[in-house]
Amino acid sequence: xxxxxxxxIAPIAGGMFQYAQAILDALVTHAPADWQLCAAYLAxxxxxxLSQYPRIAASAVPNxxxxxRMASGLMAxxxxxxxxxxxxSLNPAAKILGALDCDVWMFPGQDPLSFQTGExxxxxxxxxxxxxxxxYPEVSESGRYAIREHRFSSIARVAxxxxxxxxxxxxxxxxxxxxxxxxxxxxxxxxxxxxxxxSVPEDFEERYPLPDKFLFYPxxxxxxxxxxxxxxxxxxxxxxxxxxxxxFSGGTAHEYDRVKALAxxxxxxxxxxxxxxxxxxxxxxxxxxxxxxxxxxxxxxxNIPPLEAFVCGCPVAASGIYAxxxxxxxxxxxxxxxxxxxxxxxxxxxxxxxxxxxxxKEKGFAHARSWGRTQFGQRLTGILTELRTVQ
Length: 391
Prior knowledge:
Helices cover about 45% and strands about 15% of the residues.
């Protein structure tokens, strides 16, 4: 079997990049020896990453800016996949996919090119939150809803296999686009490689002087990350004489200014620390030192940060929405992220209950052992083997 992976996202793309790297790691480690592995990439930033995988024959897409503009432009204009395929020879990315002559191409980044070529494709749909949480501007404003609809309905129609994170994610694709359930496969997320492999840099303590006890929330300041309700819960916890300290990591974009202003309005300046964007190599240090991680997101179906916390022995409380219960099982406290009192109760429990935290820590370790890189790689190669048998 000759298998290609299309890397249309840049390594700066955060979670998407980490997922793509998990796919590459899994293929190199678990794909049968007689499989030939290829990759086509847009951003030159991929070159040092791909150099770590001598088994993968990597090819740069010529004129990558034009290739990306063409694919994105056709998607924004909502051009039907059949028309895109008819003119795909004009896109240098589509041309190189054809020239590499793979039996099937994987698209881990749900790229627009995935449904614009005639290649057999296995494509990941990470979430359909624009349909299930459309009131959040990050998935609905400025034409985003219509573009996401075109993207995901096209993927559901043309992909030979669709990868999703959970059974709930699978049902979302079926319900939203009438996709055949038989072609959808569940491949749950795993933590990024740095959580397993990296050691905390020696200058961590100097760079991040942390309080002795704190809860941790690692998230960009999108509205759906729900920092506002978490702050309201923190303020409410003072009614029970609980003095919780929380650390927010994440850049200063999106709702950052509003969140910081709300912390001031609620007189939480001494209870909340904003540490800014934290490079991946330092995140592990926060998880290892935190009393617990609290994750009140409004989006799913599942999320990766609780899995990172499990590996690091950090007790977790997370939103009990969509497939989060399916993902986390009994290894985390689940709560209603729309209910300030529900958030308050789990925050106080994490803060005060030593026995609970010890139990969650051990359950998190057990969860991490039960689903990690080995299981992910084995399931992925099993899914790909199905395609090999139906060529």
